[in-house]
Amino acid sequence: MSPNPVGPTLEAFLEEETRRTPGLERAVAAIVEDLALAFAGVAAAVADAALRGRLGEAATSNASGERHKKLDLLANEALAAACERGGHVAGIASEEEEGPRLLAGARASARHLVAFDPLDGSSNVEVNVTVGSIFSILRRGRDGGAPTLDEFLRPGTEQVCAGYALYGPATMLVLSAGRGVHGFTLDPRTGEFRLTHPGLRVPETTSEFAVNASNARFWEAPVRRWFGECIGGSAGPRGGDFNMRWIGALVAEVHRILTRGGVFLYPRDTKRPLKAGRLRLLYEGTPAAFLVEQAGGAASTGRERVLEVAPAELHQRIPLVLGARAEVERIVRYHREHDANGEPFRDPLFNARSLYAPRAARGLGAED
Ligand code: MN
Ligand code: MN
User: Fold this and answer.
1) What is the value of pTM for the model shown?
2) How many A from CA of 329 to the centre of ligand 2?
3) Does 352 score more than 80 pLDDT?
4) How confident is the model at residue 358 (pLDDT cuts 50, 70, 90)?
5) Which ligand is nearest to the CA of 279?
6) Of the candidates 340, 102, 345, which has an alpha carbon nearest to the alpha carbon of residue 219?
7) Which letter does DSSP use for residue 345 in this model?
8) Which of 89-93, 103-107, 301-305 has the lowest mean pLDDT?
9) Is 80 exceeded by the pLDDT of residue 355?
């Protein structure tokens, strides 16, 4: 594989993209530029956290009852400040904040809302494994006035831009404003993001999957069927061997899929307390689905296209299946066949009781 030629800076790219994309407003480019600056700052804070006493937990918890890490809060404030800087963002929603936050610095004409997970996979920080930030930009249905909670509860199809920053061996920004998916790498010498991965595409088929297989006994039947067929390998119904990958942080999983293909699942499970999956719809599922679809892949809950899910609450969780189109479609078909076979979706609690009464107290998983 030849190395990627280094393309334009993020600023130059966005200027061109704004010119070429009907309806893409200059404000969106300005918001992304401000976020990019914050991502570079978060990357630096993650890199020297151990040197600055910023590892470990803070004293507060988020809306899901998970204890904040110091870096969660630092990243949250960095992204909130970035959204406030240009005055284009009327309000934000964050994994780390109970409700929407109205930005005092917003101009009266501010027409956009931003939802984000400021530090995805933050428990990876302690083991020096990749973490990220992921965001979704919506355009308000109306101008002026304080945005209401309802304005954030829009299906993912209404996103005007989505993206993530990845803090790995290299810091990257990957985004889509509705015309493909493009990756930028931070040049630590200049502080600039330069286009290095234009037009990312997800191959339609794959022999790689990522799923937390330790939860297999809690999955619904269609997911167990799919998984059983995969691990059956060349002797099984799929007639081929699969490889498994697992990072346990959504942004890093999505990045792997965008760069080398594969399928990622965090399905609904029947553990108690009941959870409709683990990942959050508005600032994990919808931006990830937007990017994967823009790269030619697919994203489903197993029963519904992720981008068409109508959100009911800010921190709603959903089951997530995303990546190679043919593999996602197969998993969706298994759900459809299962539901049509007179085995409608059953109360997960019933399943949990009938077969696998969970005994051990559940801790929170590595994934957040
Ligand atoms: Mn997360
Ligand atoms: Mn997070």
Assistant:
1) 0.92
2) 29
3) no
4) very low
5) 1
6) 345
7) P
8) 103-107
9) no
Q: Which amino acid would we find at residue 282?
A: L
In the chain, pLDDT over 70 holds for what percent of residues?
A: 91
Residue 18: partners with Cβ closer than 8 Å, 6 or more residues away = 24, 25, 26, 28, 29
The pLDDT of 154-176, averaged and rounded, is 98
Checking if the pLDDT of 354 tops 90, the result is no
Domains of the chain: 10-197 (3.30.540.10), 208-357 (3.40.190.80)
What is the rounded distance in angstroms from the CA atom of residue 183 to the CA atom of residue 7?
10
Ligand nearest to the CA of 287: 1
The residue-averaged pLDDT of 184-190 equals 96
Q: How far is the CA of 368 from the centre of ligand 2 (A)?
A: 5
Query: β-strand 131-139 against 182-187: which pairing, if any?
Result: unpaired
**294, exposed or middle or buried, with CB in 10 Å at 0-12, 13-18, 19+?**
buried
Please give the C-alpha separations between residue 196 and each of 30, 180, 182, in angstroms, as whole numbers: 20, 14, 8
Q: In the predicted model, is pLDDT for residue 348 greater than 70? A: no
Given this model, what pLDDT does residue 285 score?
98
Angle subtended at Cα 139 by Cα 136 and Cα 140, rounded to the nearest 5 degrees: 125
Ligand nearest to the CA of 42: 2
Task: Taking residues 75-103, report their average pLDDT.
Answer: 97
* Span from the CA of 281 to the centroid of ligand 2 (angstroms): 13
Q: How far is the CA of 119 from the centre of ligand 2 (A)?
A: 4
Q: Do 255 and 172 touch, CB atoms closer than 8 A?
A: yes
Ligand number nearest CA of 365 is: 1
- Could you tell me if 60 and 96 are in contact, meaning their C-beta atoms sit under 8 angstroms apart? no
What average pLDDT does range 121-131 have in this prediction? Answer: 92
- Span from the CA of 280 to the centroid of ligand 2 (angstroms): 10
Averaged pLDDT score across all residues of the chain: 91
The first and second tokens of residue 347, run together, are 């109360």
Which ligand has its closest atom nearest to the C-alpha of 73? 2
Ligand 2 centroid from CA 205, angstroms? 30
- Give dist(CA 114, CA 76) in Å, integer: 12
What are the residues whose beta carbon lies below 5 Å from ligand 1 (ion)?
Answer: 117, 120, 368
